[in-house]
Automatic annotation (TrEMBL):
One of its GO terms (biological process) is nucleotide catabolic process. GO terms for molecular function: hydrolase activity, acting on ester bonds; metal ion binding; nucleotide binding. It comes from Cognatishimia activa. Pfam families: 5_nucleotid_C, Metallophos. Residues 12-219 form the Calcineurin-like phosphoesterase domain. Keywords: Hydrolase, Nucleotide-binding, Signal. This is 5'-nucleotidase C-terminal domain-containing protein. SUPFAM superfamilies: 5'-nucleotidase (syn. UDP-sugar hydrolase), C-terminal domain, Metallo-dependent phosphatases. Residues 371-502 form the 5'-Nucleotidase C-terminal domain. PANTHER family: 2',3'-CYCLIC-NUCLEOTIDE 2'-PHOSPHODIESTERASE_3'-NUCLEOTIDASE, 5'-NUCLEOTIDASE-RELATED.
């Protein structure tokens, strides 16, 4: 849910989910309700609560809303740990539903390792039956990397499958008739990705688990409108018929698994299971909105406050064809934040390059773009430019590794054939927020060459077809053996996007710094073009060649002056985007 209470664009939230749940509960009195994590992070309201700007964490509006929902159990996601353990403990202290996390523990857990739920269900003849439902919950072990600044030395994490085997055995031995797994992981991945990230399907073949509820990846499975029917027979393997649902993100869908249960001398089991994702109601529940109304009002007041001024427009509409102001601003804030830290650590002789990407550049629909016009800047607009509460991470790398990082980044572009018109530019299997620019070096991108990396960051070919050319530092060709400092964010540093050459071995330990706080410093001084690092890249010229790309509907207001002669407006698409032709 990522903290969404009301709706905004394609996002729904608990207010809309509640209406759908009320209908489903009315249709069937035998029900259990679970949440699979990432509920305390994802909105400005959640961030402001973490900063203490809207009141004490013990009275968190998200928890109050979840109490209204009547969950049977709630699994923790990795983002619950984004704000540190003291805040998490305070926030969860107000919850009425039990919290579960089976493979991460601290010295002061406020969650259970597993849970037994006593439930009385009514059969088709109206007869009651008492069942005990066992629940366990798994979180990606990479949370120790993603939230390193908060968890290092304070938390221990355990492997997915081993934990599942242990918890299933424990629950069954304590009387569980059925065992449900809340697994904060996706259900599919390439072999390369699966080697680094656990999957929900890793536990479907473990004897004793009856269904799996997935999360984390924001994907939807089964697809909307589809129904997956599982029939349990002795001849089929368990994992081939495992009921499994992955209900997307931010309240767009309610994942539903309908079980038909049967009792035999060996105990209870399901005989059929139908899995589906139900699109949520277009109507918001007023009771839910009323619960959160005081906090929403305070958040809106805080976000409307002016924090500075900008002399330039800041938009991400054209981030696919040049290094946009939002990306350059993020790089400037990171560089400002780490400069004194690196000096204190003795890294004064190494050059610093900063990786940054556009967060809102169309990956979630035609309205998902940053658009901040020149003039007064509010806190809300800073959240628009940089919506995530990301710490800063730094690594020591070589020039060759910097080149490889860039090759991974620019693999999102399709290969463009010379002297051919209107070829698609961007491969949408690559999220735009994984298109990093490196500020501090300069380079060209040769689109006539094939990509070196697949969408899951598998290397496809050797450096002979490198897209990165004329890579230079301070006007000189970049020495592949030269050392430098790469500054990025904790998401990327923890493996987000699976960029190469990141590990604990070359990480430079830094204290927590919030990028948005340093953006506020820049805006408070009055942002000018001179405050931003020089755009680092451009496409290598291709005479007689053009490419097309889609961007947001408001793009016409933000066309960069240096690109006007090379762009042709092709109008709106059926999907609500605006299409342009770029002369290369």
């Amino acid at each position: 849910m990522h903290g969404h209470i009301g709706g905004c664009g394609q996002t729904k939230g608990w207010a809309f989910v509640t209406e759908t749940l009320n209908r489903l509960k009315a249709e069937n009195s035998n029900h259990l309700l679970f949440d699979n994590g990432d509920f305390l992070q994802g909105t400005a309201l959640c961030d402001l609560m973490a900063f203490g700007a809207l009141g004490p964490a013990e009275n968190h509006p998200v928890i109050r809303v979840m109490n209204k929902m009547g969950y049977d159990a709630i699994g923790l996601g990795n983002h619950e740990f984004d704000f540190g353990l003291p805040f998490l403990r305070d926030a969860l202290s107000g919850a009425t539903a039990p919290m579960v996390c089976s493979n991460l523990e601290t010295d002061q857990n406020v969650w259970e390792r597993d849970l037994l739920i006593k439930k009385t269900l009514t059969d088709s003849l109206g007869q009651p039956h008492k069942l005990t439902i066992g629940v366990f919950s798994l979180i990606p072990p990479q949370v120790l990397d993603w939230c390193r600044v908060h968890l290092e030395g304070r938390a221990r994490v355990f492997e997915f499958q081993a934990t599942a085997v242990e918890r299933i055995a424990s629950l069954r031995s304590r009387g569980a008739d059925l065992v449900f797994a809340l697994c904060h992981a996706g259900d599919t991945a390439s072999k390369a990705e699966a080697a680094k990230n656990p999957l929900a399907t890793d536990i479907t073949s473990i004897p004793g688990v009856d269904l799996v509820i997935c999360g984390h990846t924001h994907s939807v499975s089964p697809k909307p409108g589809e129904r997956k029917l599982c029939v349990r027979t002795p001849s089929q393997s368990q994992d081939s018929v495992m009921p499994l649902v992955l209900p997307g993100d931010r309240g767009k869908f309610v994942g539903c698994i309908d079980l038909k249960l049967q009792k035999s001398p060996r105990g209870w089991t399901w005989v059929t299971a139908e899995c589906r994702n139900i699109e949520v109601s277009e109507t918001a529940n007023p009771d839910v909105l009323e619960i959160a109304a005081p906090w929403i009002a305070r958040a809106q007041t805080a976000l409307a406050a002016e924090v500075g001024n900008s002399e330039i427009d800041i938009g991400t509409f054209f981030s696919a064809i040049q290094c946009d102001p939002a990306t350059r601003l993020a790089a400037a804030a990171k560089r400002m934040a780490v400069a004194p830290l690196l000096e204190d650590l003795g890294y004064t002789d190494l050059p610093v390059v900063t990786a940054a990407s556009p967060f809102r550049a169309g990956h979630d629909g035609p309205e998902c773009y940053t658009a901040v016009p020149a003039g007064p800047v509010t806190l809300r607009e800073i959240y628009d430019i940089y919506p995530y509460f990301n710490a800063i991470d730094a690594f020591k790398i070589t020039g060759a590794q910097a080149r490889d990082w860039l090759e991974a980044s620019v693999s999102g572009f399709f290969q463009i054939l010379p002297e051919q018109p209107d070829q698609p530019l961007w491969n949408h299997q690559f999220p735009t927020y994984e298109f990093d620019s490196l500020l501090g070096v300069s380079y060209q991108i040769d689109l006539s060459k094939p990509a070196l990396y697949s969408p899951d960051r598998r290397r496809l070919s050797e450096a002979a077809c490198s897209r990165i050319c004329d890579l230079s530092l301070s006007g000189e060709p970049l020495d592949p053996h030269a050392e430098m400092i790469l500054v990025t964010n904790a998401y990327r540093g923890g493996g987000g996007g699976k960029f190469p050459h990141i590990s604990s071995r070359n990480r430079i330990p830094l204290p927590f710094r919030d990028v948005r706080a340093w953006m506020q410093v820049i805006f408070a001084r009055g942002l000018t073009e001179n405050d931003l690092p020089t755009p680092s890249w451009q496409f290598a010229p291709m005479a007689g060649t053009s490419a097309t790309f889609e961007t947001g509907s408001d793009a016409l207001r933000f066309i960069p002056s240096n690109l006007k002669q090379r762009l042709t407006d092709l109008g709106e698409t059926a999907g609500g985007y605006r299409k342009f032709r770029l002369s290369l």
